[in-house]
Amino acid sequence: MAKVKVAVNGYGTIGKRVADAVRLQDDMEVVGVAKTRPNFEAAMAHDKGYDVYTLADRVNDFKNAGIEAAGTVDDMINSADVVVDCTPGGIGEKNKSLYEKAGVKAIWQGGEDHKLADCSFNADANYSESLGKDFVRVVSCNTTGLCRVISPLDKEFGIKKVRVTLLRRAADPGDIKHGPINAIIPNPITLPSHHGPDVNTILPHIDIATTAVKLPTTLMHMHTLNMEFRDECTAQDVESVLAMQSRVRFVGQGITSTAEIMELARDLDRPRSDMWETCVWDESITMYEDELYFFQAIHQESDVIPENVDAIRAMMEMESDGAKSIAKTNKAMGI
Length: 335
Ligand code: NAD
Prior knowledge:
Elements: E1 4-9, H1 13-23, E2 28-34, H2 40-47, E3 52-54, H3 59-64, E4 71-72, H4 73-78, E5 82-85, H5 91-94, H6 96-102, E6 105-108, H7 114-117, E7 120-121, H8 123-126, E8 135-138, H9 141-157, E9 159-169, E10 185-186, H10 195-200, E11 208-215, E12 221-229, H11 235-243, E13 248-251, H12 258-267, E14 278-281, E15 286-288, E16 291-298, H13 305-315, H14 322-333
Parallel strand pairs: 1-2, 1-5, 2-3, 3-4, 5-6, 6-8, 7-8, 9-11, 13-14
Antiparallel strand pairs: 9-12, 10-11, 12-16, 14-16, 15-16
Helix pairs in contact: 1-13, 13-14
The structure holds nicotinamide-adenine-dinucleotide.
């Protein structure tokens, strides 16, 4: 069977990882990546063998910087079956008309609103809803991490309500524009935060409320979760369900911080020190007065990457069974 042709529009933190993950799959190929500036990331993409495209008015900038652009973003879109839009939040929306005009399917990221695609995606929770769809949005790193634990626990025990505090990294490690560097910011101050409604774009029936603060760290987000269930269950029952989730990793063995999780990712020889799984401290899983509590950490740069691969498979109807797609993606990436 011919491989599905994937283009990546926006080759930054998420885009470069999506391109590399697609390249590892035997049923899809990268036909090009698009970058606005001819910087080191564009040069690296070129060196890795990707065809690098850019905006029509930037082709000469690329030439002057010694990077031969393969063509314009329009050329790239026209050569693809599906475009994974990884441009900064808000820019992707402006690209929708380009994709419609070219008659190409498109995936957006969590920085865009749900209504842009009208179909939000998490492989574990709602794979089948994206089967054959033209437009899909892979939810944010935080929403992905939450869905991966809420969905299986809801299926098993029936969730009455979820309350979460999100401790958010201030910026990605390579980002020199955002902060804070010496403050803790309630973000947003008005409550609850948007993260709960975002989970509801995947799991509409879940009663969830969230609050969020930004911290001066770049490595990972941390969540403190509190849940109530309809059915009786113990901490051990919860642990058994989470232990079966391929994209949930228990962390222990002296790991007491996000810094040590990143060290583990380096020791695992993960590309770019990526930790694709939601990391749950199994030791923290506690039932107190019939309510569940635990901590989990999210590697914001990478947890959505396998989800993008599965979203491509669902939209292109290459695999109708979500569990099979997840297994295939995991195997190719080494999850
Ligand atoms: P980024 O800034 O690291 O990368 C965006 C890339 O798009 C850059 O290479 C930029 O040059 C390029 N770009 C900008 N305008 C463009 C245009 N008009 N056409 C083509 N390319 C253009 O951003 P990111 O962190 O990778 O975020 C991308 C999306 O993924 C956003 O929706 C974001 O909310 C979402 N997301 C980010 C994270 C994260 O933690 N970084 C996690 C999950 C989801």
